[in-house]
Amino acid sequence: MTPEFHRIRRLPPYVLEEVNRIKARLRADGVDIIDFGMGNPDMPTPKHIVEKMIETARDPKAGRYSASKGIAGLRKAMAGYYKRRFGVSLDPDSEVIATLGSKEGFANLAQALTAPGDVIVCPNPAYPIHAYGFIMAGGVIRHVPAQSPEEYLAGVSRAVKHSAPPPSVLILSYPSNPTAQCVDLDFYKEAIALARKHEMLVISDIAYSEIYFDDNPPPSVLQVEGAKEIAVEVNSLSKTYAMAGWRVGMVVGNARICAALARVKSYLDYGAYTPIQVAAAAALNGPQDCVEEIRGIYKSRRDTLVESMARAGWDIPSPPASMFAWAPVPEKFREAGSLLFSKLLIEEAGVAVAPGVGFGEYGEGYVRVGLVENEHRIRQAARNVKKFLANADEILARAHNNMAAQ
Ligand SMILES: Cc1ncc(COP(=O)(O)O)c(C=O)c1O
């Protein structure tokens, strides 16, 4: 048989796929699944953004190729957002690239920056593209345990000492997907100092910059004095404006890195459909009460989830930001692990979550619960979980018998 393609061998099947397969089978059998598995915003995109897209689409020129690094108006709007929100000045021409969602931006940044064998420092657990974007680009990942931001930074120093060649890129991502943890400006100061000392570039993914629930909006790494000399930030409109399917993100900061990304993109794409870019600029420049509304919905769901699951016997720490809760696997299922727990939860309770191990080995012991169902359904899920936990011994015994019989 022909051996598997070189690159494909480096991309293990998504662990989350195993739960998705069960979900599809149960749904085909007519089972109602309460789906906290994927981070897919379920709210409508605000009306004024949709209207702007429709209006622009009527222009006979709208269907032409656009600009691969984004139209000037959108890059200007992105720079405006950084000034307003973080007090960071960016040159829209040289320090801002509009991307086809932040995932594309991140993956092509990896292509632009990586030589075969380059070592990249990546948190674990992490959003999969953080490691696999670089693996696809021929890099080597130095996974650093990141159960907390402090643990991550301490691990970075150790990783630098023991990697050959020394790491070339340091990845940061707060608020974190999956752990929902946040950091303050002091953390970024320390990270930038560390990166500077060891001659690493920094890529910071802040896709959840606007989804926060207390009075401390997440800072940007670019607020650190001199950060622009070595860092770029990846940001997204997907969550902020419930525009995940529109595919609009940005890479901003260091001009040399932005130019490298622009070069790669100039070979690969012609930019998003112009009306989408015009509407994205309208989102950033227009009224921001829709952002507050979206944030409020996630916050109420978070409170309902934490309260109702606690009543059901599952203590889930309240996430300070992001659209996820990072929930410890309930005691009785600890030994079974996050994947088996997730499979049993969907089979027996009709509740889908993402097993923590899908985000890296250090995600074991947890599952990620997305705040992507309404409060009524969250309460229903909690009732199902209560019954599930009450029958834990019986469910586990049955699962073990089934596995032994296979
Ligand atoms: C940390 C993080 N970065 C990036 C993305 C991708 O966002 P986008 O839709 O902009 O590609 C996600 C989506 O879930 C995410 O969690």
From TrEMBL:
<dbReference type="InterPro" id="IPR050881">
    <property type="entry name" value="LL-DAP_aminotransferase"/>
</dbReference>
<comment type="similarity">
    <text>Belongs to the class-I pyridoxal-phosphate-dependent aminotransferase family.</text>
</comment>
<dbReference type="InterPro" id="IPR004839">
    <property type="entry name" value="Aminotransferase_I/II_large"/>
</dbReference>
<protein>
    <recommendedName>
        <fullName>Aminotransferase</fullName>
        <ecNumber>2.6.1.-</ecNumber>
    </recommendedName>
</protein>
<keyword id="KW-0808">Transferase</keyword>
<dbReference type="Pfam" id="PF00155">
    <property type="entry name" value="Aminotran_1_2"/>
</dbReference>
<dbReference type="InterPro" id="IPR015424">
    <property type="entry name" value="PyrdxlP-dep_Trfase"/>
</dbReference>
<dbReference type="InterPro" id="IPR015422">
    <property type="entry name" value="PyrdxlP-dep_Trfase_small"/>
</dbReference>
<dbReference type="InterPro" id="IPR004838">
    <property type="entry name" value="NHTrfase_class1_PyrdxlP-BS"/>
</dbReference>
<feature type="domain" description="Aminotransferase class I/classII large">
    <location>
        <begin position="32"/>
        <end position="382"/>
    </location>
</feature>
<dbReference type="GO" id="GO:0008483">
    <property type="term" value="F:transaminase activity"/>
</dbReference>
<keyword id="KW-0032">Aminotransferase</keyword>
<dbReference type="InterPro" id="IPR015421">
    <property type="entry name" value="PyrdxlP-dep_Trfase_major"/>
</dbReference>
